[in-house]
Amino acid sequence: MKSRLKSAVAALALITVLGAPALAVPAVAVAQEASASIAVPPLGFVKRTLPNGMDVYTARDTTTSNVTIQVWYRVGSKDDPEGRSGFAHLFEHLMFKATKDFPDETFDRLTEDVGGNNNAFTSDDVTGYYQTVPANHLERLIFAEASRLSSLVVNEAVFESERDVVKEEYRQGVLAQPYGRLFSVFMPATIYQEHPYRRTTIGSIEDLDAATLEDVLRFHATYYRPDNAILIVAGNFDQAQLDGWIDQYLAPIPNPNRPLPENNVREPEPTGPREATFYAPNVPLPAVVLSWPTVPYAHPDRVALTVLDGILSTGESSRMYRSLVYEQQIAAQASSSPDFSQQAGALSAYAIMAGGETPETGIAAIRAEIARLRDEPVTAAELAEAKNELVADALRGRETIEDRATTLGFVLINTNDASVADRQIADIQAVTAEDIQRVARRYLTDDRTITIRYLNADEQNPPTPQNTDVTAPVTVADLAPVGQVFTLLPEAERTPLPEPTAPVSPTTPPVADFRLANGLRVLVVEKEGLPLVSARLNFDAGAAYEAPGKAGLANMTAALLTQGTTTRTAPQIATEIEQLGASIGAGAGSDFANVYANAPADVFPRAVELMADLVRNPTFAEEELERQRDQALDGLRVALSTPGPVAAQAAGRVIYGEAPYGAPGGGTLTSLPALTREDVTAFHAGRYRPSDATLVFSGAIDEAEARRLAEAAFGDWTSPAVASAAVDPSGPALPPRVVVIDQPGAGQAAVTVAMRGVSRTDADYFPLTLGNTLLGGSFTSRLNQEIRIKRGLSYGTRSSLGVRADEGLFTASAQTRNDAAAEVASLILAEIERLSTTQPTEQEMTTRRAILTGAFGSSLETVDGLGALVANLALYDLPMSDLAAYVGNVEAISAADVQSAFAEHLPVDRASLVIVGDAAQFIDAIRAQYPQVEVIPLTSLNLDRAALQ
Q1: Contact 584, 39 (CB under 8 A)
Q2: 440-476 core/surface letters (b: 16 or more CB in 10 A; e: else)
Q3: CATH of domain 512-714
Q4: Is the pLDDT assigned to residue 738 strictly greater than 50?
Q5: 788 contact partners, CB below 8 Å, separation of at least 6
Q6: Which residue in 37, 452, 714, 928 is a FRET match for 419, CA 20 to 30 A apart?
Q7: Active centre residues (catalytic)
């Protein structure tokens, strides 16, 4: 489902290379048949309310070995006090610190260290906290939630550290992203006139700096109270036992007698159209937004507006994508987003213009599509197709216990009525074409239109500053008094954590394995539960097989599979996919290409038939190649304006040089224009062969049905006589380099340490995987502890083993403020070296084993996750028995194995360093450590060459 544009996540998503969709008039009967046959089961939660006012919703599911615990607090960024924007989000961070009974970072110890996960989010109306853990740890999490609600410890050091982390999150998600300011800051500030929704959730540097420890303590005393919270628990538990724990730990927490601050601003009706233009640095392509105030979530017109949005921009056959991207080719991306919050709403349509196109062209095109919705009824086929997509998304959104709990929580925050979640499917299917036209005429009128232009800053037009002088209905004076200030008790005085109960072990299903007569290998893994099925067809057709100068060929070939066959045009393919409520597509990585399909079980045979046509009969039409190439180039220009993607692409060249692994998988600004139809057809003929392919089915399908579908779709497919030649993808080892790519004005610096790693089949794969999890593969990793938690230098750090068929690409990276780049680089290198020279502690080994086995268990919960596990074994010619053996393989790793593997494969004297950012702020410090540093202006960067210029 589409994310709300007001989140930084939406802005981050825009840096990806964009695919090309299309539209044609669908067959009404097919779409309506699919819609009618998809059944979404009810969520099945049971409610009770504690005497202190806390609402509790529980749902038991014994098919999983896990349990999810979520607490949704009715406080969001709309409740930030005046002059303290970003406060609710800042507190989201602070809630993971100490209580009187346990020290900082205990929540991570209770979740990640036992094989689970935790996270939190803040939006306009809510701050939510969620954990998913093995079921035997449920009591401990109920205790911990009660402890942080009733006795949170926040001191000056913790407050300042987390405030620094939030600043780095702001720089990473807002300042360093080319469209971060548009979606996170300028859009809400322009759309809403009076409502506090006009402030960005993450706040501003100025308001964060203005906050004090007393403010924080008063904010907690005001909003973190039992009657302002919703507890949701789903998974494998005993109901009576859970109720007892809730009564023991949560029910005794007293509720304050002070009322919550009043905050229900009524957003005024528009009095006429409005326009605004904003400027920001490093905006590679202009963007435009047209927005209209609509309704809050609970309004009866929300459902019709949601379906309207589906017709307008959801999926590859949507009106906006067809018109602006596919036909007119004036936009690199065009979409819309309905923003339905608790107290107000808006619908926004946007376009990131193609190279050379003006904002005015985009504005006119969007206006034309909106006018069509007002002036003429949508077709029955379009209406049915949009409904199918929404219903299928709802089905996928109930696949895991965490999904189901999240769906419920979102509805409760916006309506306080759990039944709304179960009525949504019926409400969607009841929407008529008349409803669509009615809401379009009511809300999407010219006199209600807000038009935004977003352009690259220059000398004449400097960057537009964020407005921090914004009034709000809640002030600091409205907050509750501080109340009791808690400190961490001496260990002997703390209430001990409850002991885990007996574990519930994950079970791995059997895998059926057979071949068709043409050599195609078929693997089937059945999963009970929701009526969803997934298929993935894998080929040895990744970037490793590209010829020199053909970077991006594998990815382009895969992308073009959905853009026309001998019996279907690109518009017909897009429409057919969406008629079924399916997800069908293709992509290519370093070694392999993958064609995938996910669909409700009743229409899955049609999805497989379509999937086979895409693979076997692509036409690779010249005009479709041109469309894909132009969109890929526009997406690449966006990516190359962002420090993180630049560092990632440069690192490949630094480690592998001119070898195939060194070339950017998405192509370069030079290689993409040079790709020809002959290149694509030859690559497809040489690499897409049934004799070298694997087809994996997972979900609501048995071996007999899978065999029938595979034979019908692929049984008569024959391999070309000659396959393309094998290559040496990694090439010879190269000496280490230190490279700085200078991007003046960059909002952050991206720091990447890279070196040649191992293949997936290496004997040290498991020790290195566990070691990587300890280094930077989780929130509790050593890198995150050193760089984020101790020093507040980054919103997050990560490392990746990056295994491939040949020697993989190991990376460890972080984004930080520019002046801290040299310090962060040193910290990363020091932690890598520590793994090579000292053994992890036994406690670290225990927690890392749990993290790996817990992630494995979570993958088993979804049809796509289960299918991916099976497919990855097949890709590397590993035995299917490794699925059942995974936990045993992880448990067998010793601390000595980890140190030995890192010392052999990842010694720091082989490491290269790539930093992308505003070099003026850190180059002296880097040059002092590395006199041999190469400095390359971003404007001179050449990713076609190993030298990078």
Answers
A1: no
A2: bebbbeeebbbbbbbbbbeeeeebbebeeebebbbeb
A3: 3.30.830.10
A4: yes
A5: 165, 168, 794, 795, 796, 797
A6: 37
A7: 92
Structure tokens, 422: 């179960």
| CATH for the 284-456 domain, from 3.40.50.720, 3.90.1150.10, 3.20.10.10, 3.30.830.10 | 3.30.830.10
Q: Are 236 and 497 in contact (CB under 8 A)?
A: no
Give percent of the chain above pLDDT 70: 95
Cβ–Cβ < 8 Å for 195, 20: no
How high is the pLDDT of residue 503?
Answer: 81
d(CA 731, CA 720): 28
What pLDDT is stored for residue 29 in this prediction?
43
CA–CA distances in Å: residue 671 to residues 157, 549, 639, 701: 51, 6, 16, 42
H helix runs in 59-155, sequence order: 87-94, 106-111, 138-150
CB atoms closer than 10 angstroms to residue 62: 11
Q: Are 229 and 250 in contact (CB under 8 A)?
A: no
Pairing assessment for the beta strands 694-699 and 521-526 based on DSSP bridges: parallel
Residues 764-820 pLDDT 10s: 999 999 999 999 998 889 999 999 989 999 988 999 999 999 999 999 999 999 999
- Tokens at 463, concatenated: 């960057």
Q: Is 393 exposed, middle or buried (0-12, 13-18, 19+ CB in 10 A)?
A: middle
Whether the domain at 512-714 and the domain at 738-861+890-940 fall into the same CATH topology? yes
pTM: 0.86
**The domain over range 738-861+890-940 is classified in CATH as 3.40.50.280:** no
| Architecture of domain 46-257 in this structure | 2-Layer Sandwich (3.30)
DSSP H helices in 495-603: 553-560, 570-579
Backbone angles phi, psi at 799, to 5 degrees: -135, 155
Give me the chain's average pLDDT, please.
Answer: 92
Residue 529: left if φ>0, alpha if ψ -120 to 50, beta else—which one?
left
**Where along the chain do its domains lie?**
46-257, 284-456, 512-714, 738-861+890-940
Half-sphere exposure of 543 (CA within 13 A, CB side): 25
**DSSP state at residue 756:** E
Determine the Cα–Cα distance for residues 715 and 704; give it in Å rounded to an integer.
Answer: 15
Question: pLDDT for 900-912, tens place per residue?
Answer: 999 999 999 999 9
Residues 97-133 pLDDT 10s: 999 999 998 988 899 888 899 999 999 999 999 999 9
Residue linked to tokens 């005009």: 623
Could you tell me the strand order of the sheet in which 512-515 lies? Answer: 512-515, 521-526, 694-699, 532-539, 593-600, 583-588
Those residues whose C-beta lies under 8 Å from the C-beta of residue 947, and which sit 6 or more positions away, are none
> What's the CA gap between 108 and 349, in Å, rounded?
39
pLDDT, tens digit (0-9, with 9 covering 90-100), for 310-355: 999 988 889 999 999 999 999 999 999 999 999 999 999 999 999 9
